[in-house]
């Protein structure tokens, strides 16, 4: 029963991507992203859960990356590829694969850093921003309680 309830890496990413696609294709649009304090609290809870039970059990680096990018936007700061890799809590090679997948799916975009050409910055796309906002705007007892 527990094994059937847990999803692993790519399956979880596909589910989040499908949820975003479904959320942003409907007519109702959610408001802004959650506040920085809400995002910080959620990220902290997700990290605590991973610390307690192991990241290999509950790891979902793509969702963690989207949350980190939402937080950076809410705080008015930019985030580099290397910083997002570190924040994901997975090996760099895994993080880079997830970043590539998120870019492929149109959920994030990469742009050169104007001050340091060696560094690339990442940000949410309108599609992912709306999907995250819709996710958090969902009524109590629905999908938002599954994070």
Main sheet, how many strands, which sense, barrel? Answer: 3 strands, antiparallel
Secondary structure tally: strands? 3
Number of helices: 8
Major β-sheet strand ordering: 1-3-2
The coarse overall form would be: globular
Distance between the termini: 19 Å
In CATH terms, the superfamily is Winged helix-like DNA-binding domain superfamily/Winged helix DNA-binding domain
- The share of residues in helices is 55-70%
CATH class: Mainly Alpha
Mean pLDDT: 80
Structural class of the helices, strands and pairings? mainly alpha
Percent of residues in β-strands: 5-15%
Second rung of CATH, namely the architecture: Orthogonal Bundle
Order of SSEs, N→C? HHHHHEHHEEH
Q: The CATH topology is what?
A: Arc Repressor Mutant, subunit A
Return the domain count: 1
- CA radius of gyration: 15 Å
Organism: Qipengyuania atrilutea
InterPro entries: Tscrpt_reg_MarR-type_CS, WH-like_DNA-bd_sf, WH_DNA-bd_sf
Protein name: HTH marR-type domain-containing protein
Give a structural overview:
InterPro entries: Tscrpt_reg_MarR-type_CS, WH-like_DNA-bd_sf, WH_DNA-bd_sf. It comes from Qipengyuania atrilutea. This is HTH marR-type domain-containing protein. The chain is mainly alpha-helical. It has a single domain, classed as Orthogonal Bundle (Arc Repressor Mutant, subunit A). The protein is 61% helix and 8% strand. The chain has eight helices and three strands. It has helices spanning 2-5, 9-25, 36-53, 55-58, 61-74, 81-88, 92-104, 126-137; strands spanning 79-80, 108-112, 120-124. A three-stranded antiparallel β-sheet has the order 1-3-2. β2 and β3 form a beta hairpin. The radius of gyration is 15 Å and the shape is globular. Mean pLDDT is 80; it is low at 1-28.
């Amino acid at each position: 029963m527990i094994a059937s309830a847990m999803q692993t890496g790519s399956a979880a990413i596909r589910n989040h991507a499908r949820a975003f696609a479904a959320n942003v294709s409907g007519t109702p649009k959610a408001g802004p992203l959650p506040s920085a304090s809400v995002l910080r609290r959620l990220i902290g809870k997700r990290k605590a859960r991973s610390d307690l039970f192991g990241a290999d059990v509950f790891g979902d680096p793509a969702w963690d990356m989207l949350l980190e990018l939402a937080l950076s936007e809410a705080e008015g700061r930019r985030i580099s590829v290397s910083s997002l890799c570190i924040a994901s809590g997975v090996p760099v090679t895994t993080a880079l694969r997830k970043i590539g997948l998120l870019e492929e799916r149109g959920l994030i975009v990469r742009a050169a850093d104007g001050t340091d050409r060696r560094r690339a910055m990442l940000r949410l796309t309108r599609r992912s921003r709306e999907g995250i906002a819709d996710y958090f705007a969902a009524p109590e007892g629905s999908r938002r309680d599954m994070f």
